[in-house]
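Sample entry (418 residues):
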Amino acid sequence: LWFLRGRAALLLLLFREWLEMRSGIRRLVRNLITMGSKHSKSRSNGGCDNLPFLNDKYTIQTIKEAHTFFVLSGLSGSASSTLRAKFSSTYPSSIACTLAHPLENAPVVEAAESVDSWFAPVDEKVQQALKEVKNVILVDDDHRHPKRLDHLTSLARDNDYIVVIVTPWAGWDCQKPADQSSEQGFWEHIIPYYFGWFLVRKSSHVMRENAEDFLKLLANNEEFSKMFRTNVEWHSEKTFDLQEYFQKRPSVLHCTTKFCDFGEVPGCKEYARSEAVVRDYAKAFTLNVTDLFVTPRTVGARVRLDKYQDQLWPRDEAHEGGGDSEEKVELPFGSRAHITLACAPGVRSVQTGLDLLEILKLEEEGTKPECQIDTEKGLLRCYGVGRWIVKLPEAVEVKTIFSGFYSKKKLTTESDGN
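Predicted structure, serialized as tokens:
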């Protein structure tokens, strides 16, 4: 009996220890989960360690092959130094253009002559980097005024560089400067003319070649030429020339997501602050071009977005439909995604997306093509009044960087992204 009582007490003791150990394991697991969720939340809020151009492998590789112009704006001295160091280690062949001394005693911004002389050493480095066609250029001159940023972004645009502005008010939780009185002004300024995916130079070259081949193919097809000619105005005494007609070509190939007009368009500030834009700004993406189309107004390429890319498409365009009729046909989300390849005289590139929606609406309604022509690029279908589209046998993949168009120089129909 004594032996049984002792054995029962031992078993009871072991059972209690097991319960305590199980409770401790549960607490440990719960703490680990909590730590993990806090870490994820911190990263989703941004941070210098969460910048895609410093941490995302595909983005880093794409930027090394592209021509990208980074501008550090509004960062504190320590954050700026940290970023430059990480940038240098990530992109060893890049060139950094910085001031020799902080801008604490810089001249008043409005004094144009003194400002120009103050930034002259930086501008010399920038011009040299552009002359050498460096793939990656970083500018950190501690400037804090829109005019200076205009100057830099215009230089980048004129030399066909994709611009990325690194600022704490763009959603990245880098250390901010002590004086944040100009935060609102910076926010209003860094909202671009438009957001979008910008094709790197190699991909731009591929798409321009596709556009040329497409126009040549159409021009050499008698059936197409005869039907298309009846829908365009041609005032020249020369024989109608399709390539001459579509002579306005975009200087920057891109797929626009949100037109902002530098903050003037309703909803653009909310879009700029959205989780997807903050997370993916300056990130590289591969877009799939699936169709080419032509109308009397535009030549364009249809882009099919994947589920991840859809997150960058504005929510206010969830219900897209082409045409002016009262009965709108609901198209799949992101149907308007496209790349403008050429425009007719007097036509702005905004028309390209509208032309695409008109064609997709007719297809969605089940409208039969008025004419179909077999071509090297696929079956060319006509939906009346000069609207033609061809589905490519294989999608053309183009490498892009998600950013904004910032230059405020006079925009033309060749370069606007509306």
